[in-house]
Amino acid sequence: MAQNYVDWPSSSDSEFNDDNSEDLSHSELEVLPKYLSEDPTSWKSIQLSHNCFVAFPGELGTFLNLINLDISNNGLTSIGMEILHLQSLTTFTARNNLLDENSLPKDFGLVTSLETLNFSGNRFTDFPMQLTELKNLKTLHIGANNLKSIPGAIKGLSKLEVLYLGGNSLQEVPAELGTLHRMTSLVLCDNQLHSLPPTFSHLRKLRSLSLHNNRLSTLPQEIVALNLKELSLRNNPLVNRFVQDLSFDPPSLMELAGRVIKIDRVKYSTADLPVHLVKYLSSAERCVNPKCKGVYFSSKVENVKFVDFCGKYRLPLLQYLCSPQCSYTSVCSDSETDDEDSARSKMKKVLLG
Fold first, then answer.
1. End-to-end Cα distance, the chain
2. CA within 20 to 30 Å of 26's CA: 75, 146, 192, 308, which one?
3. How far is CA 250 from CA 292, 296, 299, in A?
4. Is residue 118 in some structural domain?
5. CB 327 within 8 A of CB 302
6. Which residues contact 80 (CB under 8 A, 6 or more apart)?
């Protein structure tokens, strides 16, 4: 049984009124009620989710003015040829069924009126090529399946704005995704991605990019050209490595003693201490935080001065601090404080998703 998939609703019944819309969800139906077929062309929206349909109701092929159809959470194993007659259909939702790449009519791409399509939570292992022919498609959800790859022919979906591919088995995505210039939201979370194509830099309208729960160890440098509002990266090797790099090992007793000697300016010489300790004390480095008078020896905190990757881009600066506490205080001039705090908060949002 396909995993149960939950996402945002594909459409709203606010577009329709009680005279042309019917909600038969959770009605334990196995066939369509006869009254629906008495005047099929009068219906514009029908909700059939959470019923007992194992086959696509053939009678639906006569509902020529149907705009919205939801047949999610049934036991569908195929979509019949009848759907090809629905040339007014703009939203089709069939999530959480038993559909796979062999379940669609070969001419499914002829339903060119489709703008929103949701096949998430099914059993697709191959991306249905018929979908690449839906030239007017704006939103495609095909998450929580078992897709191994995405064809380069997806570039044919030139009007696509939202693409949900989360929860599959993708190890890579094609460079052709970068040609979908109208894309505003791209979800690739919960896959097995090791890298992203540099062509993503062409997605200038992209505002939300979800990449959490993958195997990314690097991001293409070109991603800094994007004007993203949301970037989710949690549970990737690159984030784990970043956190590990910033980990702080407690200073040794010798270092703590050395810090006290240097901070309190205790006088010493080779007459008082062994040569190797004098050499050690001479290796002290001043903490770069101007508000801190501390020093460090080998135990230090690496503080990366990040900038906002969206918009103004400057090179990162690696600084050394004496303690983690110093990383929470200002280490820059007053004129830079606001920019630095903003950059740090945004980078935290980026890293944690």
1. 30
2. 146
3. 18, 12, 7
4. yes
5. no
6. 55, 56, 58, 61, 105
From 183, 213, 242, give the residue that closes a domain: 242
Residue span of the structural domain in which 57 resides = 13-242
Q: Give the pLDDT confidence score for residue 232 in this predicted structure.
A: 86
Contact at 8 Å (CB) between 68 and 23? Answer: no
For 184-226, how does the pLDDT look when each residue is reduced to its tens digit (9 = 90+)?
999 999 999 999 999 999 999 999 999 999 999 888 877 877 8
CA atoms within 13 A of residue 322's CA, in its CB half-sphere? 21
DSSP calls for 210-237: E--SS--S---GGGGGS--SEEE--SSH
253 C-beta neighbours (distance < 10 Å), count? 8
pLDDT tens-digit series, residues 265-305: 999 988 888 999 989 999 998 888 878 888 888 888 766 54
Same domain, 95 and 174: yes
Specify if 128 maps to a domain.
yes
Q: Are residues 57 and 189 in the same domain?
A: yes
- Distance (Å, whole) CA 80 – CA 56: 6
Kindly state whether residues 60 and 179 are assigned to the same domain.
Answer: yes
The Cα 281–Cα 297 span in angstroms is: 8
Residue 208 corresponds to which tokens in the numbers above?
């939300």
- Residue 323 lies inside a defined structural domain of this protein: yes
Tally of domains in the chain: 2
Per the structure block, which two tokens stand in for 140? 């495609």
**Are residues 217 and 258 both part of a single domain?**
no
Q: In what order do the strands lie in the sheet with 91-93?
A: 21-23, 45-47, 68-70, 91-93, 116-118, 139-141, 162-164, 185-187, 208-210, 230-232
Q: Is 235 exposed, middle or buried (0-12, 13-18, 19+ CB in 10 A)?
A: middle
For residue 144, what are the CA distances in angstroms to 97, 98, 127, 323?
11, 12, 13, 44
61 lies in some domain: yes
Q: Flag whether the pTM goes above 0.85.
A: no
- Give the domain CATH number at 85: 3.80.10.10
